[in-house]
């Protein structure tokens, strides 16, 4: 049961244009969402997060949008730079689950490979 | 500032051999600790988490075990490795609920 899905395995974008990475989730208990960036053979690096009480959070070139009714979030990178080329993972956590607190456990999507061409 | 150390970076082990991967966190106390695995071409799967010394919860049935002998130390172990244990193992910590987790550099384990 894939509770967090990134349906696009890869995305190719020209430098300077906008990159839009998408993520869908099924668990209505999720109330905190994150995006991570990962290079090969390295651990993921936290990029940006959003709480379910918001629908948008912005940090520099990165903006995350949350549509709770559609159970969908997206990451916008503008302008895209070649150094942004990496695998991007979305993740979600729930403050509570059926057994009580979730202890901050993250459920990850499969990742999207972003390639930004000069 | 907080840092997380994970070692070794790469490991090649024969089937049936034991495993011990270590992770330590500095600059914080009583962190939540996690072990994740990334199989080839897939996302990160949570294996274990710990909210305190000696407290370990397993997320998936498997050939591995975890221990937390000290507040900021998290160990992933196996008595006998299987080929299917190959993967990229990541340790992470977080300060609690609704906050980001910070990851170590990962260990590439190849079981041959």
Structure description:
The complex is a heterodimer of chains A (118) and B (112). Chain A has 118 residues and is mostly beta strands. Helices cover 0% and strands 54% of the residues of chain A. Chain A is built from no helices and 13 strands. In chain A, the strands form three sheets. In chain A, strands 2, 4, 5, 9, 12 and 13 form a six-stranded mixed sheet that branches. In chain A, strand 4 (32-38) and strand 5 (45-51) form a beta hairpin. Chain A is globular and about 45 Å long. With 112 residues, chain B is an all-beta fold. Chain B is built from no helices and eleven strands. In chain B, strands 2, 4, 5, 6, 9, 10 and 11 form a seven-stranded mixed sheet that branches. Chain B has a four-stranded antiparallel sheet with strand order 1-3-8-7, with no helix packed on it. Chains A and B meet through strand 4, strand 5, strand 9 and strand 12 of A and strand 4, strand 5, strand 9 and strand 10 of B.
Short description:
Chain A is mostly beta strands. Chain A has strands at residues 4-5, 10-14, 19-25, 32-38, 45-51, 56-59, 62-67, 72-77, 86-93, 96-97, 100-101, 107-108, 112-117. Chain A is 0% helix and 54% strand.
**Assembly state (oligomeric):** heterodimer
Distance between the termini of chain A: 38 Å
Average pLDDT of chain A, to the nearest integer? 93
Structural class call of chain B reads mainly beta
- How many β-strand runs of chain B? 11
Q: What is the string of helix and strand elements of chain B? A: EEEEEEEEEEE
Distance between the termini of chain B: 38 Å
Give me the secondary-structure topology.
The complex is a heterodimer of chains A (118) and B (112).
Chain A: E1 4-5, E2 10-14, E3 19-25, E4 32-38, E5 45-51, E6 56-59, E7 62-67, E8 72-77, E9 86-93, E10 96-97, E11 100-101, E12 107-108, E13 112-117
Parallel strand pairs in A: 2-13
Antiparallel strand pairs in A: 1-3, 3-8, 4-5, 4-9, 6-7, 7-8, 9-12, 9-13, 10-11
Chain B: E1 3-7, E2 10-13, E3 19-26, E4 32-38, E5 44-52, E6 55-58, E7 65-70, E8 73-78, E9 87-94, E10 101-103, E11 107-111
Parallel strand pairs in B: 2-11
Antiparallel strand pairs in B: 1-3, 3-8, 4-5, 4-9, 5-6, 7-8, 9-10, 9-11
């Amino acid at each position: 049961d894939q509770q967090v899905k990134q349906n696009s395995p890869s995305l190719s974008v020209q430098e300077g244009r906008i990159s839009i990475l998408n993520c869908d989730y099924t668990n209505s208990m999720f109330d905190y969402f994150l995006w991570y960036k990962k290079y090969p053979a390295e651990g993921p690096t936290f990029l940006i997060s959003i709480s379910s009480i918001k629908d948008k959070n912005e940090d520099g070139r990165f903006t995350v949008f949350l549509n709770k009714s559609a159970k969908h979030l997206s990451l916008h990178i503008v302008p895209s730079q070649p150094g942004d080329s990496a695998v991007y993972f979305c993740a979600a956590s729930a403050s509570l689950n059926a057994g009580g607190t979730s202890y901050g456990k993250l459920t990850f999507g499969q990742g999207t490979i972003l390639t930004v061409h000069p | 500032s907080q840092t997380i150390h994970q070692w070794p970076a790469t490991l090649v082990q024969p089937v049936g051999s034991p495993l011990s991967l270590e992770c330590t966190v500095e600059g914080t106390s009583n962190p939540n600790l996690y072990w994740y695995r990334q199989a080839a071409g897939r996302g990160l799967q949570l294996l274990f988490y710990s909210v305190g010394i000696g407290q370990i919860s397993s997320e998936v049935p498997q050939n591995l075990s975890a221990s937390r002998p000290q507040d900021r130390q998290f160990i992933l172990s196996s008595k006998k490795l299987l080929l299917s244990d190959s993967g990229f193992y990541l340790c992470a910590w977080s300060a609690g609920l609704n906050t980001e987790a910070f990851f170590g550099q990962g260990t590439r384990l190849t079981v041959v």
